[in-house]
Amino acid sequence: MESHTLRCADALVKVFEKFGVKFIFGHPGEQILPLYDAMKESKIQHVLMRHEQGAAHAADCFARSSSDTGVCIATGGPGAMNLVMGVATAYKDSVPMIVITGDVPLKLKGKDGFQDIDINGVFQPITIESFEIQNAEEGVLALVNAFNILKYKRKGPVHLNFPKDVLESLVEDSLVDSILENNNNENYINPSIIEKSLKLIENSERPLIIAGAGVLWAKSSDKLLNFSEEHKIPVASTYPARGVIPEDHELSVGMIGLRGTKAANYAGKNSDLILALGCRLSERTCLGIGEAKVIHVNLDERVLEGDIKIQGDVSQFLDELNNIHMLNTDEWLSKVFENPKTFNVKTNFNTIPIKPQLAIKEILDTAKDSIIVNDAGTHTTWVTLLRNVKTPASLLFSGGFGPMGYGVPGAIGASLAKPGKPVIAIVGDGDFQMTLQELGTIHELNLPILICIINNNSLRIIKQWQEMYYGKSYQVELENPDFEKLAESYHINSVSVNSPGEVMMAVGKALTMNKPYLIDIEVDQTEDIPLPEVLE
Questions:
Q1: Do 306 and 276 touch, CB atoms closer than 8 A?
Q2: Helix then strand then coil, % of the chain, to nearest 5
Q3: Could you give the 3-state DSSP secondary structure of residue 265?
Q4: For residue 23, how many other CB atoms are within 10 A of its CB?
Q5: How does DSSP assign 459-498, residue by residue?
Q6: Do the beta carbons of residue 25 and residue 59 sit within 8 Å?
Q7: Could you give the dihedral angle defined by the CA atoms of residues 313, 314, 316 and 322, in that order, rounded to the nearest 10 degrees?
Q8: Is 90 exceeded by the pLDDT of residue 177?
Q9: What is the pLDDT of residue 180?
Q10: Is the per-residue pLDDT at 21 higher than 60?
């Protein structure tokens, strides 16, 4: 039989196609050119971002919005280093993402030549795996393994670094097919652990479910809701999992922990059993948890805590609870819901410039079922307090790392994940200027993204902390450009507003246009965010 070979780069594209990748976010450069050449004939759409940080944030938010794996690529040296911020962001929030970097040829590695740097050494602390590829066969196998890791094991970025000559080297087509045919690594949960869990659950008088983003990755929101309704168990969410069940549902207590609702934190402090599903019991979440026994289910064994630790898929675990017989929880639910599950935020102001919390309220009231992508800063707190999240992955943000500049490129990923769905990026004026070049990508793809800039001409939250801890602010005032003219230079329509009622009208108009739009909202520069209430 005649043997056929193909380039490693072509084999990688074949693997991406096999695993259903639709979009690859990236920026080309010399060392990654073979992969770009291979993508030319593929049905996979490459999304040309204007900066590699934007590529990583877009891939990250695509994953969060779709619950599928995001993919971003960059060249070696500077291109790879520019990815670092976005990869670290995905790592902190356990977002499944495949990161491909090019590199100098093998013979030049370690010679301190042009753009030669230890790329894997940089990426190892911010990825769940970083592969340094030495040959074509190893590269194909590593990419297949990356998809399997993200499906059956931990969530987070997996990095593969390809020297340019490896991308151009040949591999047997039959070998690629063989690797693709043998890629099943499905996990199973030990039946004895399930039996122990069932006994604890059936004897619980005050159960609480804490749902994390792992429920979303398992695409099990409906399954969780059905389980909660059948057994009348209240559900709290972690910050990244807001909307895992509708927050206006009768069994939802909202977010738990730091900035959690009183209902959620009461339930956490007084529960006798917590089912922690697909979450990390972080220091912020644990602020709302008391002395309950804990059954913790997560694919990442390193984060498991509590009385029963189950390394496994949330969906599989819920399937094992079909025949459970629980105690009556009516009295427990009555006590839990004596506490409010929404926040009382004053917004009845009539001042000019508009108060930031009122501006946010007008955006959210008009947004309805739009996807909201948050950035970092004061507006993030107001969105957290004012948004009632009713559907999974409809409020997207970087929780664990909080980089400025996430919102605009993140909105690109969300818009491509949910075509036709309006996406609103709420960003600060400081945030926006970190990644504003991605307006070029938004215009090029004509994405229905509305960018709302909460413009206080400063790095307002940092100013608040400076004044609180040091008595005086320093180097936080911004002399901003004309954001309307800036949007116009990218061929994007825009408007500036500063008054109550104007924001709502501008957002409503923008959403009817179904194309890129920017609103520059001048807000009161003196308004502080409220300090979080932490339960004793």
A1: yes
A2: 45, 20, 40
A3: helix
A4: 21
A5: -HHHHHHHHHHHSS--S-B-----HHHHHHHTT-EEEEE-
A6: yes
A7: 160
A8: no
A9: 85
A10: yes
Topology at the third CATH level for domain 356-522: Rossmann fold (3.40.50)
Q: Look at residue 163 and give its three-state secondary structure.
A: strand
Mean pLDDT of 201-225: 96
What number of helices (H) and strands (E) belong to the chain? 23, 20
Distance set, CA 218 to CA 204, 282, 489 (Å): 26, 20, 42
5-181 and 356-522, same CATH topology: yes
Q: Which residues are within 8 A (CB) of 399 and not within 5 positions of it... i.e. 6 or more apart? A: 92, 93, 239, 240
pLDDT at 534: 38
Q: Residue ranges per domain, the chain? A: 5-181, 191-336, 356-522
Through-space distance between the first and last CA atoms of the chain, rounded to whole angstroms: 74
| The residue type at 490 | Y
Q: How many residues does the chain have?
A: 536
Average pLDDT score, the chain: 95
Biggest distance spanned by C-alpha atoms of the chain: 80
CA–CA distance, 450 with 443 (Å, rounded to integer): 12
What does the pLDDT look like over 392-432, one tens digit per residue?
999 999 988 999 999 999 999 999 999 989 999 999 999 99
Distance separating alpha carbons of residues 105 and 298, to the nearest angstrom: 39
Token couple for 296 = 């913790």
Which tokens belong to 507?
A: 């957002």
The tokens describing 342, both together, are 């929404």
Q: For residue range 329-373, list pLDDT tens digits in order.
A: 999 999 999 999 998 899 999 999 999 999 999 999 999 889 999
Residue 2 has pLDDT above 70, yes or no: no
Per-residue pLDDT tens digits for 52-99: 999 999 999 999 999 999 999 999 999 999 999 999 999 999 999 999
Q: Tell me: cis bond preceding 403? Omega within 30 of 0 counts.
A: no
Positive or negative: CA dihedral 381, 383, 389, 395: negative
Cβ atoms of 278 and 214 closer than 8 Å: yes
Q: Which top CATH class is 191-336?
A: alpha beta
294, 295, 240, 287: which is closest to 261 by C-alpha? Answer: 287
Q: Percent of the chain scored above 90 by pLDDT? A: 90
Q: What is the pLDDT of residue 3?
A: 60
Give me 202's structure tokens.
Answer: 């059936």
Give this prediction's pTM: 0.95
The Cα 274–Cα 291 span in angstroms is: 10
Cβ–Cβ under 8 Å, residues 249 and 263: no
The tens digit of pLDDT for each residue in 291-310 reads 999 999 999 999 999 999 99
For 5-181, CATH gives 3.40.50.970
* Angle at 273 (CA atoms; ends 270, 275), nearest 5 degrees: 120
Amino acid at 389: V
Q: Position 135: which residue type?
A: N
Give the residues across from 396 on adjacent strands.
Answer: 373
